[in-house]
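Long-time lurker. I teach an intro course on protein structure, and each term I like to show students one example going from raw sequence to a predicted 3D structure in token notation. This year I'd like something fresh instead of my usual example. Would anyone be willing to generate the tokens for the chain below so I can use it in lecture? Attribution to the forum is fine with me.
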Amino acid sequence: MDIAGLISQYGFPVVACVGLGYFIYYVWDYVNKHVKPQLGKMHMALVRVIDQTRMLDQDMIRLQQKVNVVLEYNARKKIIEEHEEDEAVEELAELKEKIKDV
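-- Reply from a regular --
Happy to contribute to a lecture. Here you go:
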């Protein structure tokens, strides 16, 4: 049977409803067989990516803390060295004065 014969026998609305019903069944079947399994796989991949991102974020926080500690130690070391240099200069100045007095 051709479509024109079906339309003349049953009418356009009935044939259109049957065609749309088949289309809806076809889309539903395709989604259930092809799309849903892929969505499940993608969901697991997304969970893994989120977990890896969290781990990287935690690693970045730890690394930043270590860098801050190293920078603080370097700043303390620089202050101590400057203080020692100032004390050495003062000692030299005192020695010069003692030498002048003698």
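Some talking points for your students: Helices lie at 3-10, 12-101. The chain has two helices and no strands.
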